[in-house]
Amino acid sequence: MNKSAQILVVDDDPLNRLVLENTLNDDYDIVVCGSCEEAQSVLSKKNVDLILLDILMGNGSGFELLEKCKTCIHSYNIPIIIVSQSHSFQDEAKALELGAVDYVTKPYSPAIIKARVKIHLTIKKKNDLLGRLANIDGLTEIPNRRALEENLSVLWQQAVQSQQALAFLLISIDYFKSYNDKHGYAQGDGCLVKVANQLEHTVNEFGGFVARFDGVRFAVVLTKQSEPQLMQCTSALHLAVEQLEIPHQASPISAFISLSIGGVLLKDHFGDKPSDVYELADSALLKAGQVQSKFELVVR
Ligand SMILES: Nc1nc2c(ncn2[C@@H]2O[C@H](COP(=O)(O)OP(=O)(O)OP(=O)(O)O)[C@@H](O)[C@H]2O)c(=O)[nH]1
């Protein structure tokens, strides 16, 4: 049977582990651990969907593991249900404050454990979906501006700390207003989807990140770039979209859809904040639209 989720059971009592395993084994993949250290090692290797955690363990406090999980980027969104012998309100309150989603006291009814696990897995699935949707552009299904901002912020900070170059490209489809006027808005949407997919495919080959910036503009972030590498990437992007051969009957410069690219290469001066590159890239993009190469680069 295809089990729907992976559950980690952490309890130092072998009998408790066995009971929980037998309760949930039919519906889920169960991994059992007798200590917090073992559990941490499992969490670093496996994708866990939910944790059932005992807090009063002889060999280390479950509270510590709970706190670690909730402050770690890789595990903070895993729901943790406490299964405890302690009926103390303080322990229950502490566990919930530290981020546990539920608190079940022993002895428990297997049916209730099953029901609570099911509820929290359903909520997690919905939260995961919302998280994904919040970062995906509805039309092109590539990352959206929110995802770009999150990603750029992390990569910019890393670049500043390591003093390694960071490149930002702003890409626009040429004469898109005329394209919509000539071919219709629906076809315009279809064209945006094709271009976005092609850009994503090409940028992936260069190990970069692409997002829809706004309307007909896309943004690309590339780390550890040199000028020649960046030129190679932008040529590949121009070529990839040319090769789609999407007819553009109203373009004064090409029979097919084409791009202009404004680039910023941060080498020495990274600016005060990540979004400083937007303005620089926007000016470069404006100039790119007027030159034959359709690419303009600002180096800082
Ligand atoms: N079909 C479609 N069109 C869009 C979408 N978002 C923005 N647009 C249109 O894209 C056009 C963008 O035009 P502009 O950026 O003003 O300019 P342009 O025609 O590309 O001209 P140049 O910048 O000189 O190349 C506008 O007409 C917008 O209405 C979208 O999601 N779908």
UniProtKB/TrEMBL annotation:
Keyword set includes Plastid: no
SMART domains per UniProt: GGDEF, REC
Keywords: Phosphoprotein
Gene3D superfamilies with a match to the protein in the record: 3.30.70.270, 3.40.50.2300
GO terms (BP aspect): cell adhesion involved in single-species biofilm formation; negative regulation of bacterial-type flagellum-dependent cell motility; phosphorelay signal transduction system
GO molecular function: diguanylate cyclase activity
Keyword Signal annotated: no
A GO cellular-component term linked to this record: plasma membrane
Its EC number(s): 2.7.7.65
GGDEF domain sequence ranges: 164-300
Residue(s) carrying 4-aspartylphosphate: 54
Catalyses which reaction(s): 2 GTP = 3',3'-c-di-GMP + 2 diphosphate
Domain spans labelled Response regulatory: 6-121
Name this polypeptide is given: diguanylate cyclase
